[in-house]
Amino acid sequence: MCVGLSARVIKVSNGTALVDASGARRSVSSELIADLEPGDFVMVHAGSAIAKITDDDENESDILAEEFLK
User: Fold this and answer.
1) Beta 5-13 vs 16-21: how paired, if at all?
2) pLDDT tens digits, 29-48
3) pTM metric for this prediction
4) Integer Cα distance of 6 and 51 in angstroms
């Protein structure tokens, strides 16, 4: 099973994005997504931002992640 985590983009520079996933910040590859900007939400898998998502998608992802951790 593959798991992606939702994260908010903090900064984008030279094909890399600094993202915040529930308080944990990491640098990930942003080369798969055009027009990525700070404030966007993305799905992160295996060190890469793989898709832009909406704020509603991010909220739903957080709820599902909390259920998995119970």
Assistant:
1) antiparallel
2) 999 999 999 999 999 999 99
3) 0.78
4) 10
